[in-house]
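Every protein is a chain of amino acids, and every chain bends into a shape of its own. Below is the pair of lines this work produces for a single protein:
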Amino acid sequence: MAKKLLHLFTLFFLLKVTFADAAVILQYHHVSEKLPPVTSISSQQFTEHMSYLKEGNFNVMALDKMLQALQAGQTLPPKSVAITFDDGYDNNIEQAAPILEMFGFPYTIFVNPKLIDEKQHYLMSWEQLRRLANKGALIANHSAKHDYLHLHLDNETKEQWHKRVAQDITWSEGRIASEIGHNTKLLAYPYGEFSTELQQLVRSLGFIGIGQHSGAVGKHTDFTRVPRFPASGVYAALSTLSVKLHAHPFAIKKLSYQNSVTTNHQPELTIDFESVDFSQHQFTCYVSGQGVANTKWLALNTVSIRAKEQLPTGRSRYNCTAPLKTGKSKQFYWFSQPWVVTTP
């Protein structure tokens, strides 16, 4: 009997260590039937997503509290999820907010303050955002005008770029604070694009940088490149989204690559894992539009990944997964490396 209890306690402890620091962030844009489906989801589909979270007993929590806890090395309840929207479109208050209010779920909206000040017709006003904030929504920073923050202007020095982008980020944060009262220091990168120097700038300003590449988050996450799972358009199907909602982060010690914004059409990525509690032969990486990538294990905890063919100019990704050794089906470790291939 004592032996059986010891076995059960050990199993519980292992499961707690494996699962307690895993969380998932969902990304939406439009909740609308009238707009192009590439970044949209219908109100019916969105309701189905929220119903799945409710019926599945997911722990839907505020994004700032989730990331603060993980940064502090704290554990989270199993199946923790945060819901986010980019850009602050007017359909968020018209269609998304009533559904979220019905389920009682917290959520975050990343906005562009200068575009709101310009009264762009497709965006919510400050008054509307205050109304949602008073009901529990978190309003956060998406830059002033949704510019490509990593790009340098013509003849702009690195120091001039640094000053301009730092001012953009801090001005936007101050504008949100003055209108809404929120000062979360969460920055969702416009278009999900970030370079190494932009990550360094975001870190120096004390912000958390959030992308649009897929993957789960945990205590090993680099908080200048937090991943989110897109949940609209082709990614809206519950059959695939349900798998992502149960995803877990790899325990990554170090990522090595030249820059995520690169002129190299076959960039190499090396991952040093803190621990490898998955089968090496089941670790697989996929390249946007190509299929399986070349992977080479350099050591027990180190793997190198490279596309078999050249990446096209623009955005691409390496998506890496491996099934958990828990005996539970459809549960995977998940990591994504975004690339922006540019011309010299």
